[in-house]
Amino acid sequence: MRWCFDTSALIEPWVRLYPPDVFGPVWEKLEELAQAGAIVAPTDVRLELERQKDDLHDWAKSLPELFRDPDRPVMEAFAKIVNDHPDFMKVNSTKSGADPFVVALAEVHGIPVVTYETTAKQTAAPKIPNVCQARGIQCVSIVDVLRAEGFKMK
């Protein structure tokens, strides 16, 4: 386990940056990394993708090893994160609440978070990069992952 993906780290590249019809090898490499257990995401990320019912959801569904149910250490970290950053998870939100689980999974395993979220302004509710920074967790992009894993387009 080397990288923890949030939902935006899958949606942004799939839809806008590296669509699979043009950048198929990128997604083949990510499949390989998921199957090897190098990239993970909390189950709640899969739940957010299920709402789309699109080809990204189908791709993710074909990789059950990508998604991790929270174990006790992750649940304990989740509770501490929500307590320490109360505005991080909106109680009445329509989102599944994956963000605190992403940070918790990364924190427990000491791995970077892969996200396309940007840091929120001080007056806004914190986003993944804000909470990661406060907790000493590195945030990276999918390109950082691909570089570190030795991927090159040919």
Tell me the name of the CATH homologous superfamily.
5'-nuclease
| Count of the separate structural domains | 1
Number of contiguous helices: 8
Overall helicity: 40-55%
For the termini, the CA-CA separation is: 26 Å
SSE class: alpha/beta
The major β-sheet equals: 5 strands, parallel
Shape: globular
Q: Care to count the β-strands?
A: 5
| CATH structural class | Alpha Beta
Determine Rg (CA atoms, Å). 15 Å
What's the assembly state of these chains? single chain
Low-confidence stretches: none
Q: What is the H-and-E element order?
A: EHHEHHEHHEHEH
Order the strands across the largest sheet as they lie in space: 3-2-1-4-5
**What percentage of amino acids are in beta strands?**
5-15%
Task: Give the helices and strands, then pairings.
Layout lengths: L2 E3 L2 H10 L6 H12 L3 E4 H8 L4 H7 L5 E2 L3 H13 L13 H12 L3 E2 L13 H8 L3 E2 L1 H7 L6
Parallel strand pairs: 1-2, 1-4, 2-3, 4-5
Helix pairs in contact: 3-6, 5-6, 6-7
Structure description:
- By secondary structure, the protein is an alpha/beta fold.
- The protein has one domain (about 5-150): 5'-nuclease (Rossmann fold).
- It is built from eight helices and five strands; from the N terminus they run E-H-H-E-H-H-E-H-H-E-H-E-H.
- The protein has helices spanning about 10-15, 25-35, 45-50, 55-60, 70-85, 100-110, 130-135, 140-150, and strands at about 5, 40, 65-70, 115, 140.
- Strands 3-2-1-4-5 form a five-stranded parallel sheet.
- Helix 5 (about 70-85) packs across helix 6 (about 100-110) and helix 6 runs parallel beside helix 7.
- The longest helix has 13 residues, at about 70-85.
- The protein is globular, with a radius of gyration of 15 Å.
- The chain starts with a strand and ends in a 6-residue tail after the last helix.
- The model has no long low-confidence stretch (mean pLDDT about 95).
